């Protein structure tokens, strides 16, 4: 097909459309840049907790990108027989997630990195097994719940974008400085105007262009330290069980709740991707996507990476760029693997100033929230549904901003409710079951038929 043939009412590229390779690479890099901070943060935190040296920390980062790249390929391509297909065949970037940082640090403290990777591998079977029962679970996710979850994904990520925009570290002296503010707003405005008025590749790659311009502007301002780039190695090949592995069941216990949480969040992310991609994802495809999470985590544990899951940060790119091609995600998976093998390339991205990424994040995460609101606009706003939406958003956003609110909850409950997305999702699911639906009067039916 031609480079910019319109494939649907709102998209430049639908899920099955295949852009030119050059265009796909640009769009793939754009996706990676928006999630790179989250991908790198987890192995850095685990490496610090384990007390490993710089070389081993670099290995953890490289392994994490390779693991994320492999899982992204599985998710976008979809492999295996129909009844056990791995991957939902949608444009989702995969990688390690902050959900596993806290239990990961606990496990590392108990048995070091071998215990961490053993828990990653054994715990992956929790998600693999859950994926086989997801068809039953999916009937509890009507538009009321999915719209609330998608809105939560966007709203709970906005504080993260604000922190990035302010400088990345709220305790730093320059956090919220005029310089950081202006950089983030500049990137935001570039993306807004390019996305609104740019034609072809200019509009679709608006986020990438905005980030690159912001990056370049920061160089003469002395905001980028290239020391890490100079010290980074040229080549880092993956190694199986480089740190060893300990399969003691006791190390899996802290990971149980995290795998339950990531299952819930992956369902929400896949639903959001389906909405943004104008693709009606069947329960089976969502189950295949959750299975990909589990299989990806299984593989990741062997190559030196933590558990893998879907990145909600990238959902906002689809309506913003009008690109929903899963082939772009496939290219992103390949690029992630390349970045993992060549640390100097990944380091160039890792040293990006936080305000640059924050400017892009403010718009993208806002778009995710708006997509959820659009779904909710098609839901009947009676008293029952308003109560479910209000309570779920209130708890989800509140926990996201002040996670200490649930610190007194015991064990598994604390892990589930410490994430704003999972907390709000669980509340929406429970209330949707407990609160009886209001009966529709004949007058309301008549009004709906006239619409």
Oligomer classification: single chain
- Which class best fits the helix and strand makeup? mainly alpha
Strand percentage, roughly? under 5%
Largest sheet: 2 strands, antiparallel
General description of the model:
With 451 residues, the protein is mainly α. It is 67% helix and 1% strand. It contains 19 helices and two strands. Strands 1-2 form a two-stranded antiparallel ribbon. The longest helix is centred in the first third of the chain and has 31 residues, at 101-131. The radius of gyration is 21 Å and the shape is globular. The chain starts with 20 loop residues before the first helix and ends with a helix.
What's the structural blueprint in terms of helices and strands?
Layout: H1 21-50, H2 54-77, E1 94-95, H3 101-131, H4 134-138, H5 143-166, H6 178-197, H7 201-204, H8 206-218, H9 227-231, H10 253-276, H11 283-303, E2 309-310, H12 317-321, H13 326-341, H14 343-350, H15 354-376, H16 383-401, H17 411-417, H18 420-434, H19 442-450
Antiparallel strand pairs: 1-2
Helix pairs in contact: 1-2, 1-3, 1-13, 2-11, 2-13, 3-10, 3-11, 5-10, 5-15, 5-16, 5-18, 6-8, 6-15, 8-15, 10-11, 10-17, 10-18, 16-18
Keywords:
single chain, 451 residues, mainly alpha, two-stranded antiparallel ribbon, 2 strands, globular, disordered N terminus
Quick synopsis:
With 451 residues, the protein is mostly helical. It has 19 helices and 2 strands.
